[in-house]
Amino acid sequence: DELGSAFCSYRAGLARRARENLRCCVVAGGADAFFPRRKLKDEGCIVKVDTLPDLERCCAVLRTSSVIGVDVERNWFRFYHDRTCLLQLATAVQGGCAFLVDCLRLPWEDVQRCLHGILEAPSILKVFHAAGNDVRWLHEDLGITVSPLLDTQVLASKLGFPHTQLTEQWARLCNVQAPIELKRRLQRSDWRRRPLAPLQTVYAAAD
């Protein structure tokens, strides 16, 4: 009900009321998870994780989060034998950052060992958009059963929010403009490429 009220407030243009309603509904999980103490900066907000020390530092930050955003990039459009190439994990703690975990350069066993406890931790809510494939891939590739999770696409539909596509939600809720054709092209790009193209990097962090 509180989330529904927040979305209704947003649609009515009552941004301040919407923020307060959203803040109230996450009090139990720590409002700072959604409202960082300092503004997100462009510099340093995207962190590439391709060594074990980087992965351990990433996990140390994520363990302090009550809510994290999760996404997976995989070459399922381009290759018959696909695999998870990149795992994006975003948090608002410590000013906010998006960790891009390189699943091609890191050993699978290290990724599984470090992230298993975080992605299955009952105290950390994992937020996805259209979670079906991502959850299945995490289970198939890393043996991780994600829980608890929130799917923003399903949530928007249940609340009657008119914008269920991610690019629409970016535009309406985050003031981020990204043409859907550009998103589709990036989604289907070669995620095995190293180094990632700059646009791939920015897209992965936003996604």
Task: Provide structural commentary.
With 207 residues, the chain is of the alpha/beta class. Helix content is 43%, strand content 16%. The protein has helices at 2-11, 15-25, 52-62, 108-119, 132-142, 152-158, 166-174, 180-187, 198-206, and strands spanning 46-49, 67-74, 84-91, 97-102, 125-128, 149-151. Strands 1-4-3-2-5-6 form a 6-stranded mixed sheet, sandwiched between helices. The longest helix has 12 residues, at 108-119. The protein is globular, with a radius of gyration of 17 Å. The two termini are 27 Å apart.
Q: What is the CA–CA distance across the termini?
A: 27 Å
Class by alpha and beta content: alpha/beta
Helix % is: 40-55%
The unreliable regions are: 25-42
The coarse overall form would be: globular
Number of continuous helical runs: 9
What Rg do the Cα atoms give? 17 Å
Instruction: Assess the beta-strand content as a share of residues.
Output: 15-25%
Largest sheet: 6 strands, mixed
- Strand arrangement in the largest pleated sheet: 1-4-3-2-5-6
Series of H and E elements: HHEHEEEHEHEHHHH
How many extended strands?
Answer: 6
Average pLDDT taken over every residue? 78
